[in-house]
Amino acid sequence: MKRDFLAVEPDCLVRDGCDGYASKMAKQIDRATPIPDTYVFDGALSRRGYRINKFCFSLTSEATRAAFKADEDAYMTGCGLTEAEKRLVRTRDFLGLIRAGANIYMLLKLGAVTGNGLYHIGAQQRGETLDQFLATRNVKGAV
To answer: What sections of the chain are H helices per DSSP?
Structure first.
């Protein structure tokens, strides 16, 4: 028997039982009270970042990664990025790219090509050095 899991709500969503889960979720999606320093990747942000995300996704093949490394500006122009978007990529401004609509999963593709892993991106987004950021992790020495 096929079950539509989306039609069944967990008890904690219905009765707000799981330590206030439903009310916490409601606050997160209430646009009138945004969570400070967060950027919700929604439809509007997705549309705004379409070119950036398409560009990042294109870096999945070895040939396109080589083309990007050989001439970043030409490759970005070929992907249709605006000058502002190119500047964000050139400066490796990952927080700026997030604000411009980049999806974190797509940014990881750019990060892999440019030598900026998830922790490098996280540190930059928090305004910290990599060492400062790593000091806040539960698993020490992870990179």
So the answer is: 11-15, 21-29, 43-48, 50-58, 62-70, 72-78, 83-90, 94-99, 104-114, 118-126, 130-135
